[in-house]
Design goal:
alpha+beta; five-stranded antiparallel sheet; flat
Length: 875
């Protein structure tokens, strides 16, 4: 049994008012006494609606399951006098719509007995969805341990004050050395300038009979510095109105007040800046403007929030000002009194939370009037220069010192068939030939880093569907008097026709050599008489001989395995003389390790226009792995043949075993039953236990007969993996099985539900399908729950060409944790109150898996069982 503190009711109630968290104080019949602010926020139900009402009456109907669980917890907490905890999955927000993911809540309920004998329950709920499980429940304890929360209780009658450990940790006081319960301890720590004010406010609360008191003041820390605290308390009065107790909490708010001071200083700093500073919320609503904007426009913050500042922006520039709601810059004109419009450059940046969500924006606007006038003058000159560059027949461009492209002439845009001026180097690089892309980008980066001229030949295409063309790109840096790069000027010239002619000439000289060297085979060539005059790189790497040492007719034969030399020479000589293709398998020695490896050698003659052989081209392909595989396959073939013979012997023994069961055992068992029936009908048994012995005999005889039948069925399954397959109508099979179980189903009053998807037929063994259904149906009825009518449900559906069957019942269920591993084993029986051999589920599993299917089970003891079977149609 748990132990509950017996506390004065008023003390408990007032202490609960000061605690954080999501909790309710309930009577055993769920009438709400206290609802915390956290709980009202959590559920969205007002505090005044909750308190004094029954919880199920004020929560929506959708909370019925939740309220029932709370009632169960309350009943158990009162009965056991222990804290009761439960988990609940679902939304606790009465106004929320359906969530994508249901939250998980940890709920607890504890009985509290007041000194007056009144009983109520403290019910708490906390979010247990993720890694912050238990955060609300632990907050009070963690705050005390961290020293941020002080709980205190002043007793007027005893003139003592109880203080939590937080009081001493926050103020750095040694509890053992201090007079912990002395009320004067607190007064001695008050700041001299605030002591009278604080004490006066307490006396004033007493005089007015206020039930609550709060104040903010400074207390002296053990180090000598003062900290700022926020104090809040409940006041308890006697019937005569005299204060009896104060129960309260004190929080250290020093850091918070320091931050507020820093914010005021920052506000003063922003107001002293000559530039305009503003901020807005995530929706774009202005929340702050500094003094500079008010001085320029004469508008207040409220007027700016109402949109009056926008009226002072030049009409042609108001569109660009709207873009300041994103991360960008904008230049615009603002009317500045008698001076007319002045140019300003504005920039805004978003402020995001830890999840990257924009929560506010900060912007700065700087006066750039003179600079912008100069920029407009330079723009006229730039436009004339651009006209000149657009007239050139080559692609011209310009870039910043860091390589950022800033200009392309018309010839460039015409070639690439685009007008997007924001293309980057990465986008242009995507149109480069993959073989040229990296070296082009790397060379350009090197030129930028060193400030040296750039020259590169590369292939480019106008768009993804266009062919590549060759270009020659040039670029030089333009520097100022101090040698600093001001910008880059470049030109790109189409040289495709020249490159094509040059490449065609190079291709004729290198194509064969390249092709031969990249092949994984050894490539060789001879003249018409068999004199070797070429070998590729693979030959050199494998044999260890260079091309010069391998020329002629002798070296080749010297590299062959001694056992292969004579045959290889004979076949090669025949091919040379007859002009027929050459093909042979032989072994070459590898130079790196001296290993002999098998190769397949092939060669074909190259003939001239007259049909005469001018050269032979050949290859040698490494087939060592193929040879090993062939040897392994041959060994596996022999092993499989041996296993096949052994299995045939086993099958023959199995046939004899089935025959023995069917004739040598079954017939005597039948005769024994008949003889015993005759004996019991005609005989006279005087012994007192005769009837019991007869029942035992009949039960044993029936169990033996059933076991013998199951063994014959098992033997039949092991003998034949396929069975006689045909198109079996599933509904007909179900009806036949139910008809065969008629007496059993009728006596148990079983309800059977059949829901089958089209098509209802499957290519399968009819006998095997009936065996599956019979075993599962009969089990569902035999192992029915004694307290309810048996219900059996079969459903079918098709998934990826396979038939899925689910057979569910509401019977006794199975403890899978205990019996799951042996559930489908032979001769395993989980219940003893019914007859059986323990082979039924074993036979079902063998039938299903032998034919490529799957079977699984889910069950809860006392509630029922579901078998899920996937049947693969037989070919």
């Amino acid at each position: 049994m748990g132990t509950n503190a017996t506390l004065p009711g008023s003390l408990v109630i007032n202490l609960l008012h000061t605690l954080p968290g999501n909790f309710l104080a309930l009577t055993p019949d769920l009438q709400v006494v206290i609802a915390s602010a956290g709980y009202t926020r959590l559920t969205g139900v007002e505090k005044q609606r909750l308190e004094g009402s029954l919880l199920p009456d004020v929560l929506p109907a959708s909370f019925a399951k939740y309220c029932a669980l709370v009632q169960d917890m309350a009943t158990e907490a009162v009965a056991s006098d222990e804290e009761v905890s439960r988990l609940f999955c679902g939304s606790l927000d009465a106004g929320a719509s359906k969530l994508d993911q249901e939250p998980l809540w940890r709920m607890s309920c504890k009985q509290i007995v007041q000194a007056e004998g009144q009983v109520f329950l403290l019910y708490t709920v906390e979010d247990a969805t993720g890694v912050h499980q238990g955060e609300e429940k632990e907050r009070y304890r963690l705050l005390q341990e961290a020293g941020h929360l002080i709980v205190w209780d002043w007793d007027s009658k005893k003139q003592t004050t109880w203080r939590s450990d937080g009081f001493f940790s926050v103020l750095g006081i040694d509890r053992a050395a201090a007079q912990a319960s002395d009320p004067g301890l607190w007064e001695s720590l008050l700041h001299p300038n605030e002591a009278e004010r604080v004490l006066k406010s307490i006396r004033g609360a007493f005089a007015e009979g206020d039930s609550e008191w709060q104040a903010e003041y400074r207390l002296r820390h053990a180090s000598g510095r003062y900290i700022t605290v926020a104090d809040r308390a409940k006041v308890l009065y006697s019937n005569q109105g005299h204060p009896l107790r104060m129960v309260g909490t004190t929080i250290d708010v020093t850091e918070q007040r320091e931050k507020e001071l820093e914010a005021r200083k920052l506000n003063q700093l922003l107001n002293s800046l000559p530039g305009i500073v503003w901020s807005s919320d995530a929706g774009g609503n202005i929340t702050f403007v500094n003094q500079a904007l008010r001085n320029l426009t004469g508008l207040s913050l409220e007027q700016v929030q109402q949109g009056e500042a926008l009226d002072l922006v030049h009409p042609d520039d108001r569109g660009s000002l709207a873009s300041l709601q994103d991360v960008c810059e904008a230049v615009f004109r603002v009317k500045a009194g008698k001076d007319g419009y002045r140019w300003y450059a504005g920039r805004s940046v978003p402020i995001t939370d830890e999840d990257g969500k924009v929560v506010s924006r900060i912007g700065v606007c700087t006066d750039v009037h003179e600079q912008n006038l100069e920029r407009l003058a330079l723009r006229d000159i730039s436009e004339k220069l651009q006209e000149m560059l657009d007239a050139l027949p080559i692609m011209a461009w310009a870039a910043e010192p860091d390589g950022t492209y800033t200009y392309y002439n018309r010839c460039w845009w015409n070639h690439f068939e685009t007008s997007d001026e924001n293309w980057t180097l990465e986008q242009w690089a995507e149109l480069m030939h993959p073989e040229d892309r990296n070296r082009t980008v790397e060379q350009w980066a090197e030129s930028i880093a060193k400030g040296t001229p750039y020259s590169m030949k590369l292939r480019w295409r106008a768009h993804r569907a266009a062919p590549y063309r060759w270009f020659q790109a040039y670029s030089s840096p333009v520097k100022d008097a101090d040698g600093n790069i001001r910008y880059w000027m470049g030109a790109t010239i189409d040289i495709h026709e020249y490159e094509e002619a040059h490449a065609l000439l190079e291709e004729k000289n290198t194509s064969f050599q390249f092709l031969a060297d990249v092949m994984p085979h050894m490539v060789w060539r001879t003249d018409a008489h068999g004199f070797h005059n070429y070998f590729n790189r693979r030959w050199v790497e494998y044999t260890g001989y260079d091309v010069e040492s391998s020329l002629g007719t002798e070296m080749w034969n010297n590299l062959l395995h001694p056992e292969d030399q004579e045959q290889a020479q004979r076949i090669w000589t025949h091919s040379l003389e007859a002009g027929e293709p050459y093909e042979i398998e032989y072994r070459f020695k590898r130079a790196s390790d001296g290993a002999w490896r098998w190769f397949l050698a092939r060669a074909l003659p190259l003939r001239n226009a007259a049909g005469e052989i001018v050269q032979w081209y050949g290859t040698c392909t490494d087939i060592e792995d193929k040879k090993h595989t062939e040897q392994q396959l041959e060994s596996q073939k022999q092993e499989l043949e041996s296993q096949k013979q052994e299995l045939e012997t086993i099958n023959q023994d199995l046939d004899r075993f089935v025959h023995m069961i069917g004739h040598d055992l079954r017939l005597p068992l039948v005769n024994m039953g008949a003889l015993f029936d005759a004996l019991t009908e005609n005989g006279c048994f005087d012994a007192a236990d005769s009837e019991q012995l007869v029942r035992h005999y009949r039960k044993s005889h029936k169990a033996m007969t059933t076991t013998l039948s199951d063994l014959m069925e098992l033997a039949r399954l092991q003998k034949s993996a396929q069975g006689n397959t045909t198109q079996v109508n599933l509904r007909d099979a179900v009806d036949e099985v139910l008809e065969s179980l008629g007496p059993l189903a009728s006596s148990s009053h079983a309800e059977v539900s059949v829901q089958l998807d089209e098509p209802e037929s499957i290519l399968y063994s009819k006998a095997n399908l009936r065996s599956i259904l019979h075993n599962l149906f009969s089990n569902a009825i035999k192992y029915r729950h004694p307290d309810r009518r048996p219900q059996v449900e079969i459903k079918s559906s098709w998934q990826e060409g396979n038939l899925k069957l689910t057979i569910s019942d509401n019977g006794l269920g199975i403890d899978l944790e205990k019996h799951g591993k042996r559930l489908f084993g032979a001769f395993n029986r989980l219940h003893s109150h019914t007859e059986g051999s323990g082979l039924g589920l074993y036979i079902v599993k063998r039938i299903v898996e032998t034919k490529g299917g799957q079977i699984s089970v889910s069950s809860k003891e006392g509630y029922g069982t579901t078998f899920t079977i996937k049947l693969k149609p037989m070919a």
